[in-house]
Write a structure and sequence with these properties.
Glutathione_S-Trfase, Glutathione-S-Trfase_C-like, 225 residues, Glutathione_S-Trfase_N, alpha+beta, Glutathione S-transferase, 10 helices
Amino acid sequence: MSPILYSLHNCPYAIRARFALVKAKQTVLIRSIKLNNKPSEMLKASPKGSVPVLLVPQNTVETNNLHTPYRVLEESLDIMLWALSHNDPSHLLQSGNVESLPAMLAIIDEFERKFVPALNAFACAKRYHENNQSDLRHHCEIELEKLESRLVKHAFLFSNQESLVDIALVPFLRKYARIDKQWFRNRPYPRLRAWLNGYIQSPEFSKVMKNYDLWLDTRKDEHFG
């Protein structure tokens, strides 16, 4: 059996999970969903109802007196680490240095705590034409300045070598850049723009962003990765 991935096309968390699967050259069966029409099979496996969800085949084990053939991974970062722990040809985990992974996870955690809520608030304000857009955008830009400073020091966000940090953050920065493209083009983040464009214009990212038919429409599993 192949792993099964429930995914939402433009969700940043789902994008980064798919990116890690591509980087790990891991093939899964992808089930594309809509949030307003979630498959019962997904909700049975992961009642919290958010994506991505990865079902990893395993020997049937007893869990709470139930037999299950799958291990359920419900967090995008867990999916990324699972994929790259099995195969990491680009050395994104930088396993040669035992201090690298904790340091990378700390950067990702800070970004998620500070930038992601600011991004979501700004996106909502922009969509509904609220009058506090400038203040909310400022909260985002505090974090963008930190990333630009990182890219002054080295070619990628963690070091001169591409890492887990890069593929974990790129979907959120793509989302921010798309909210107001002209504004982002004119901001003093030349290195961040070049870094982002290098990803989103790559054939690899095109593979990550391939569209799939909604699974509930066809009940047909398609291979991804």
